[in-house]
Design goal:
eight-stranded antiparallel β-sheet, disordered N terminus
Length: 290
C-alpha cells in the first residue's frame, strides 16, 4: 500500500512539474498577456500566441494592450516594421496610464517613403504633460528582421534601449520641480495607425493606399515588472532578478549612448531654443542623456 501511495505521489509530482513547465513555456503568449483593443481582423495572433501582426488599410488600423497594469519594470518587445513605402504610418510600443493627467513612455516608429529611413520618436509624459521628444534614425533596417525595443522604468530614471543599446535616459529631477511618472500604474500598448497629416516629413508625404495593407509584426513580449491589481506581485519568475529596479548606465552604456546620440539623433527638445524661446526646460541643463 505504501509503495502504491508512493507511486501515486510520484506520478502526481511529475504531472505537476509538467504542468508548471507548460505554464512557463506559455508565459509571454499574446493570448495570455494581451487584449485586442481595436481593428478586429486587422489584428491577428499567430503561432499559438507567439506572434501578433497588426495591419492598416484605408478603413482601419489596429492595436492591443496588456491585460495587466504595472508600476515599474523592464518591458521588452520584438518588432519588425512595415516594409517598403511606409509613409504616413505610425507603429507604436509604449506604456500609458489613463485620464487627463496621464503618464506615458513612448516608442513611436514613423514610416517613410521607400529608401528613406524610419524615424524613431521617443517621448515621456508625466501628469499629462509631454513635450520631451527625442528622435533618431536607426543604424539598421528595422523592416528586414525583428529587433528588440526595451523600456526600463524605475523610480530613478527611464531608459530606452534598442537591441540592448541605450539610446535615451530620462532621469528623475523631481527635486528641481520636473514631474516624473512614478505613482500611476501603466499598461503596455501597441498600435499601427495612419498619421499622414504629420508623421512623414511633417505631413508633406502622404500614405499611398495602393500599397495597403501595411503590416507590422510583434513577438517575444516580456514584462519583468511589478504587476499591480488583484495580484500585486512581480510577473517575473523566481529565476529572474530585478536589476531594472536600480538600473542605470555603466561606462560601456555611457559610451554606447554617446555614439547613438552623436551619430543617429536627429532631434532633441533640449536643443530647440526656437521652440523654448523663454528658456530650455530645467532638466536640459542637468543631464546630457535626457
Amino acid at each position: 500500500m505504501a509503495q502504491s501511495n508512493y507511486s501515486v505521489s510520484k506520478a502526481f509530482a511529475i504531472a505537476l512539474t509538467i504542468s508548471c513547465l507548460i505554464v512557463a513555456a506559455s508565459a509571454g503568449s499574446f493570448y495570455d498577456e494581451m487584449d485586442i483593443t481595436f481593428g478586429g481582423e486587422h489584428a491577428k495572433i499567430l503561432n499559438g500566441g507567439q506572434d501578433l501582426t497588426l495591419s492598416l488599410d484605408q478603413y482601419s488600423g489596429a492595436g492591443f494592450q496588456s491585460k495587466n497594469e504595472y508600476l515599474f519594470g523592464r518591458f521588452d518587445m520584438q518588432l519588425k516594421l512595415v516594409p517598403g513605402n511606409s509613409a504616413g504610418t505610425v507603429t507604436t510600443f509604449y506604456l500609458s496610464s489613463q485620464g487627463a493627467g496621464h503618464d506615458e513612455i513612448d516608442f513611436e516608429f514613423l514610416g517613410n517613403s521607400t529608401g528613406n529611413p524610419y524615424t524613431v520618436h521617443t517621448n515621456v509624459y508625466s501628469q499629462g504633460k509631454g513635450d520631451k521628444e527625442q528622435q533618431f534614425h536607426l543604424w539598421f533596417d528595422p523592416t528586414a528582421a525583428f529587433h528588440t525595443y526595451t523600456i526600463v522604468w524605475n523610480p530613478q530614471r527611464i531608459i530606452f534601449l534598442i537591441d540592448n543599446i541605450p539610446v535615451r535616459v530620462f532621469n528623475n529631477h523631481e527635486t528641481a520641480g520636473v514631474p516624473f511618472p512614478k505613482s500611476q500604474p501603466m499598461r503596455v500598448y501597441a498600435s499601427l495607425w495612419n498619421a499622414d497629416d504629420w508623421a512623414t516629413q511633417g505631413g508633406r508625404v502622404k500614405t499611398d493606399w495602393t500599397k495597403a495593407p501595411f503590416t507590422a509584426s510583434y513577438r517575444k513580449f516580456n514584462a519583468n515588472a511589478n504587476r499591480v491589481g488583484s495580484y500585486s506581485k512581480s510577473t517575473s519568475s523566481q529565476n529572474d532578478n530585478q536589476a531594472w529596479s536600480t538600473q542605470g548606465l555603466d561606462a560601456a552604456g555611457r559610451k554606447r549612448i554617446r555614439w547613438v546620440q552623436n551619430k543617429h539623433m536627429i532631434y532633441n527638445y533640449c536643443d530647440d531654443k526656437k521652440r523654448f524661446s523663454n528658456g530650455l526646460p530645467v532638466e536640459c541643463t542637468r543631464s546630457r542623456f535626457l
